Amino acid sequence: MKATKAFFNGEVITVDAQFSVYEAVAVYENHILSVGTNEKILAITDENTEIIDLGGRSLLPGFIDAHAHLELYGTNRLGVNGKDVKDIKELQARLKNAAESTPIGEWIRGWGYNQNNLAEGRHLTRWDLDEVSTEHPIIVVRTCGHISCVNSRALELAGIDAGKEDPPGGKYVRENGELTGLLLEAAHMNMFLLANYSETEILKGLELASQDYLAAGITSVHDAGGYGPDHIRYLQNAVQLKKVKQRVYALYGSLKDSPEMVEKGLASGMVTGLGDEWFRIGPAKVFIDGSSSGPTAKTREPYTSDPEDSGILYLNQLDLNTILGNASEKGWQITAHAIGDQAVEMMVEAIDTALENHPNSDHRHRIEHAGMTPPDLVEKMKTLEIVPIPNPAFVYEFGDGYLKDYGERVHTMFPLKSFVENKIPFAIGSDSPITTFNPLYGIHAAVNRQSKTGNPVGDTEKITVQEAIKAYTWYGAFASYEDHIKGSIEVGKLADFVVLNESILECKADRLKDLKVDMTVLDGEILVFKSPKEAVQ
Question: CATH classification of 65-69+197-479, choosing from 3.50.30.30, 3.30.70.260, 3.20.20.140, 3.40.50.720?
Answer without folding.
Answer: 3.20.20.140
